[in-house]
Amino acid sequence: MRRDVFQAIADPIRRDIIDLLADAPRTVNEVADRFDVSRPAISKHIKILTECGLVQMMQKGRERHCVIIPQELSRVSQWVSQHRPLWEQKLDTFEAYLKEIKSKTNNDESDK
Amino acid sequence: MNQTSDIERRTLTLNRLFDAPRDLVWAAWTESEHIAHWWGPAGMKTKIKKHDFTEGGEWEYTLQMPNGQDFISYGTYSKITPRERIETTANFIPMTEGVTLIALFEDDGDQTAFTFKVIHPTEAYCKQQEEMGFYNGWGSVFEGLNTYLGTI
User: Fold this and answer.
1) Nearest CA to CA, how far is A9 from chain B (Å)?
2) Residues of B in contact with A95 (CB under 8 A)
3) Residue B128 and residue B148: Cα distance in Å, rounded?
4) Which of A25, A36, A89, B106 is in the most buried spot, having the most CB atoms within 10 Å?
5) Over pLDDT 90: what percentage of chain A?
6) Yes or no, beta carbons of B118 and A90 under 8 Å apart
7) Which of the pair, A52 or B75, is modelled with greater confidence?
């Protein structure tokens, strides 16, 4: 199964885990303590996050920490901004039309 | 936890200052006879299939593309504050589904400050990502249309 950042952020718990890890690296247990869901469920979410390339496991002494890889997240804002030209275009058309009806209204008034 | 940053990441915000009074901008944005003139790319007429401008009311506009295909947009108004704010769900077939659009209108002297937000759903990202090839294809349809309009 192909995984990417969009799948990572599709789940609200995973989004919260991302926010938590963005703050500081944490062990799986430390992450699990913050949620009302079971530890295996948290492990599964973290596994998906690592498969999506958003989180990496790093050995630190005897503990394994989950560390966020922020570069991957920027792909989300990139994707959103791809839609910008289409909307800008729509607003351009709206603005042009507005100008047209505005001058029409003004002409009507001056005719009176 | 931090819900705001998540929504911000998924939101596209556009700001415009329209050189027209708010009443006129509001009318042009919300009345079907006006929408038909600007919803589509310049010079193209939009067919208004449904336009029930009330909370819970549905809208559906279609646009015939030069290749004969219909470009359909539809949604349901979720919140309307007259002359101030409109919130609606929106789907653009075949392009983007399940987005929320928010339009805000404010006076700025004789002009109108307009804010437009497009909030994308996270679930759709995955799907959209897979369909990106298709989306790019749709973008070229728009380009082709603009070129076509330039010639008539």
Assistant:
1) 7
2) 16, 18
3) 28
4) A25
5) 29
6) no
7) B75
ipTM of the complex: 0.73
Segment A4-21, tens digit of pLDDT: 777 777 788 888 898 888
Contact B12 A87 (CB under 8 A): yes
Mean pLDDT to the nearest integer, A30-59: 92
Rounded to an integer, what distance in angstroms lies between the CA atom of residue B131 and that of residue B17?
34
Q: What integer is the mean pLDDT of B112-121?
A: 87
- Predicted confidence at residue B149, as pLDDT, reads 43
Q: Which of B135, B147, B12, B3 is nearest to B71 (CA)?
A: B135
- Chain A, residues 5-24, CB within 8 A of chain B, namely 6-7, 9-10, 15-16, 19-20
Is A60 an interface residue toward B (CB < 8 Å)? no
| Residue A74: alpha-carbon gap to chain centroid | 8
The β-bridge partners of B63 are: B71
